[in-house]
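[job 0417] fold request received: histidine kinase
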Amino acid sequence: MPSIRTSLLKWLVVPLLTVNIIGAGLTYWLAWIPAQIAFDQSLADAGWAMIPRLHENGAQVEIDLSQQAEQVLRVDHFDAIFLVVRDRQGKLLAGDADFPVLPEREGLNEPVPYDGVMRGEPVRIVALKTMIGKQPVHIGVAETLRKRTHIRSVIFLALLLLEGVLTMALMAAIWLAISKGLRPLKRMRADLNARSRDDLSALDEKQVPFELSPVVKAINGLLDRVQLDAKAQQNFLANVAHQLRTPLAGFRTQLEWLLQKHAGEPESAHSIVLMTSSTERMIRQTNQLLTLARAEPAKFEKERLRVVEMNKLVEGSVQHFVEEAHKKNIDLGFNLQPTRVMGDHFLLSDLIDNLIDNAIRYSPRDGTVTVSTLQGKDGGIFSVEDSGPGIPPSEQESIFKRSHRLDDRVAGNGLGLAIVRDIAKDHGSRITVEPGAAGGTIFSVHFPFPILGTPSKLPI
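[job 0417] inference complete; emitting structure tokens
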């Protein structure tokens, strides 16, 4: 499909240029015709000047035209002037004998201009018939077309230059007008492109012209339907995850009891350990699905934010991750300085769990993981540094997409960093990904300063 701009240019420029060309032609003729009339009038005046020199002498007509007077009539700096005076029988009374035959005219004293040829050169002729006494006399005056051709060329070039300037100005005006007219579409496109994938809010119909209002209404209707579908999916996901938590927790409890009962039977104990490990993975995935639904930016309520001491929140999760790190002989260190942030207690706990769990998973055996909280100049910072393989710069945007994984050999479902991104967005925070000093990666979440007068943290 051609662009709207191209279509508008085609339907505006072509007709306007056509009208402009027609107008230029009319202007040319309006400029040239008066000039032509003026030149013809000059020739007619020369013919009129010879009439007083004519007189009747009996049955003949004579002319009293001296050589000096004839030279005055023939003076012209550009063209050659030709004269002729003939009686009724065509006898030459004065002027050029080779002057073309003058046409017979019925009217008297009416100059008639026409084109002709004199001595092989195009000329303009004015013929005049008059009566001297009772004798008709024919007078002709002609001049070459050099002056007329020059004036005609000057008029043509001036109009051509003027029309070129006007055409360029017209094109610029049309382009600016179309660009200004399409600006609301450009703003709408920029608004839609600047939105995050979670922003399904309606477009403002008051900020668009009347012609775009139906389009905006259609887009808003589509966004409403997509938003309803997204909410339904999130609610379904949250409900399923919530319903699975209780039976899975009961199943894990039963497996722990079976493991104690069959501790003396190696084969049974080994099988129960494998089932317990699978159950733990299912519980973790269920919890992540529930967190993902709860952290959805479109559903998050800012009223849930409270002042939270981030360092104490991390301390509450230490024991679990110490045990996980011990399984791979990872040196898990903590640098927890007093750090206060605005946040949701439960979502921040999930953010901490996912970043530390991700660091332990991707760090090699005998590696190191360092967890830090500190109060920076712009707000609180929570960071986790691992000794894993690192993340290429080209992958640093993709790792936060759902189900994206850097290494399929590492257990996981690819939701951890997507959850971290959504929780950070809920808290107005930004995430940075930097290479570690000795390899690996440093994930840092930068929180804004808490707002004074907000409620304190919930008890941990």
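[job 0417] notes: The chain has a mean pLDDT of 83. DSSP finds nine helices and 14 strands in the chain.
[job 0417] exit 0
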